[in-house]
Amino acid sequence: MNDGHDVVIVGGAVIGSAIAYYLTANTDFTGSVLVVERDPSYATASTSLSSSSIRTQFSNAINVRISQYGSEVIRSFADMMAVGDNRPDLNFHPAGYLFLASTPEGARTLRENHEVQRACGADVVLWAPDELAHAFPHLRVDDIQLASYGRSGEGWFDNTGLMQGFKAKARVQGAEYVTDEVVAIGHEAGRATSVTLKSGRVIRAGWIVNASGPRAALTARMAGLDIPVEPRKRTSFVFDCARSPEGSARVNDGRLPLMIDVSGSYCRPEGRFFLTGCPPREDVAVDWDDFEPQYDLFEEVIWPALAARSESFEAIKVVNQWAGHYAFNTLDHNMVVGPHPEMSNFIFANGFSGHGLQQAPATGRGVSELITYGEFRALDLSELGFARIIENRPFLEKAVI
């Protein structure tokens, strides 16, 4: 079977569906959109296995502004994605992020980041140890030199709700979704021309968008291109707490934030439980189908760090765990968005390195603008383009989790 679409998006999770939504919502775009998704259950998609949070506490202004727009979309999501009587509620918890620093270098980084964040209008404050202890009395702060706390615009939300909201609205607006897998990409004279599906279907394409998450390099290679993105495993743990400190904060109606400890472990409330995780001790690429949790991280790394930070976390018990994949950009841990210089109709939307959910709205809007107008308009994402990959010029972010 031979047919064609103006835009073929490879990958239908949150990034692909956000792009499909923004294209079909744009009245200046009059083409057809096909989204190819290999697993409509999204069981192992990075979207589904994410801790699904959003923060403005980055060190680069563009990342701050990307998340500020993401926060706007999350707050207005029910209105934007309404389909008939269905108004998707993302159950946003605006409890903020809390970064801790225990060294002069760490404190200096928080101050430098804070200047960038405040210049962008982010609602972030710096606290001395006594201010931190007053706000969150369960914390031990003897080793802390400085803390950075997001008072608004940060928190966590329903990950699959965001994806499914984009997807449902995109379909109503005319996007077509097909359950299949891209196995080949036709290209000639510096242009992508078609995709071949596992089912045998060949689809002509005016534009091809790589939104295939941790499999981004596999998709790129089909077009004779390469991108330094690989799957990195992240294990999440849910634990019960004998004496929960939730409700004890003297800010934000008693709600605890997502805390990033100086050890690298993070922790946040999750209903009556807590969600936690940390980077693996050896952060290496894993097989695309390897989702076995790294069980030892909890007892050997996370629990000792949390118990040292708070007496409340001395008596805790794991009740669930799972592993997901970061689509990890090995150059600089930042997303790559835009065309390849040698194949102008092949668009990358890859390498989010754990930030894909919060950056999906701005990415979807940006790719829509590139395809429709040939340029970014609402927010200039060109710093995050592919040219830096070719030039081996990292766009470094100091606030990496």
Automatic annotation (TrEMBL):
Please provide, alphabetically and separated by semicolons, the GO molecular function terms listed in this UniProt record. Answer: oxidoreductase activity
The FAD dependent oxidoreductase domain extends over 6-370
Q: Which UniProt keywords apply?
A: Oxidoreductase
A single GO CC term, please?
cytoplasm
Any single biological process term in GO: mitochondrial respiratory chain complex I assembly
Superkingdom field: Bacteria
Keyword Oxidoreductase in the entry? The reply is yes
Any idea what this protein is called? FAD-binding oxidoreductase
Q: What organism does this protein naturally occur in?
A: Paracoccus methylarcula
Organism classification, top ranks? Bacteria, Pseudomonadati, Pseudomonadota, Alphaproteobacteria, Rhodobacterales
